[in-house]
Specification:
Length: 193
C-alpha cells in the first residue's frame, strides 16, 4: 500500500494492522453468532458468498481507486507545470503591469486636472489624442514577447511624462496669468477710487 499510494511505510503497516484487526473482530462475531460450523449452515453459506462478493468488490474498488489515483497524480503534475509556467510569466510581466498602471493613472490624473480648463484642453488636444492613439494601437501587445512589452511600457511612460510636464507647465502659466489679472484688477480699482 505504501509503494502504490505514496504512504510512508510505517503508516501503511499501521493502516493494514487496523484493517486486519477489524476484520478479525467481525470474523469472531460471526463465529459467536453462527457457531464454529457456520459454513455448513444456510446462513453461513450466504455469509461466505456475501463475503466473497464483498472482497471482490473491495479488490475492484482498490484497482479502480489506484487507476484513478494515478490519473489524478498525472493531472496534478500537468496542472502544477501550468501553474509554474504561468507564475513565471506573471513574475516577468508584473513590473510591466505595475509601470503601465502607474503611467495610465498619471495620464487620467492629468486629464482630470484639465477637465474644467477649456483653454488648456485646446492647447494639448493633439498630444492627448496622440497618446490615446498610441495606447489603442499597442493595447494588443503580447505579454510573452518581452522586447515588445518593454518597448510599449517605456514608450507609454515617456509619452505620458511629456504630457504631464506640458499640463503642469500650462497650469502653472495659466495660474500666473490669472494672478496677474487679479493683481491688475486690484490696482486698477485703487486708482479709480
Amino acid at each position: 500500500m505504501n509503494k502504490i499510494k505514496g504512504i510512508p511505510y510505517v503508516s501503511g503497516k499501521t493502516i493494514w494492522y487496523q484493517f486486519n484487526r477489524k476484520a478479525n473482530v467481525y470474523k469472531k462475531r460471526n463465529e459467536v453468532i453462527l457457531g464454529e460450523n457456520r459454513e455448513s449452515s444456510n446462513n453461513g453459506k450466504k455469509l461466505k458468498n456475501s463475503k466473497s462478493k464483498d472482497l471482490d468488490k473491495f479488490n475492484s474498488i482498490i484497482h479502480l481507486d489506484l487507476s484513478n489515483y494515478n490519473l489524478l497524480i498525472q493531472k496534478f503534475k500537468n496542472i502544477s507545470t501550468i501553474v509554474i509556467s504561468r507564475s513565471m510569466e506573471n513574475k516577468t510581466n508584473y513590473p510591466f503591469a505595475i509601470s503601465l498602471g502607474d503611467t495610465f493613472r498619471t495620464f487620467n490624473d492629468c486629464c482630470e486636472k484639465i477637465k474644467s480648463k477649456l483653454k488648456i484642453i485646446k492647447l494639448i488636444a493633439k498630444q492627448k489624442l496622440d497618446i490615446q492613439e498610441f495606447i489603442t494601437k499597442n493595447v494588443q501587445t503580447i505579454w510573452s514577447n518581452f522586447p515588445e512589452s518593454d518597448k510599449f511600457t517605456k514608450d507609454s511612460y515617456e509619452e505620458v511624462s511629456s504630457f504631464e510636464e506640458t499640463v503642469g507647465d500650462l497650469l502653472s502659466k495659466i495660474s500666473q496669468i490669472e494672478s496677474l489679472f487679479k493683481f491688475k484688477n486690484l490696482h486698477s480699482e485703487k486708482f479709480n477710487k
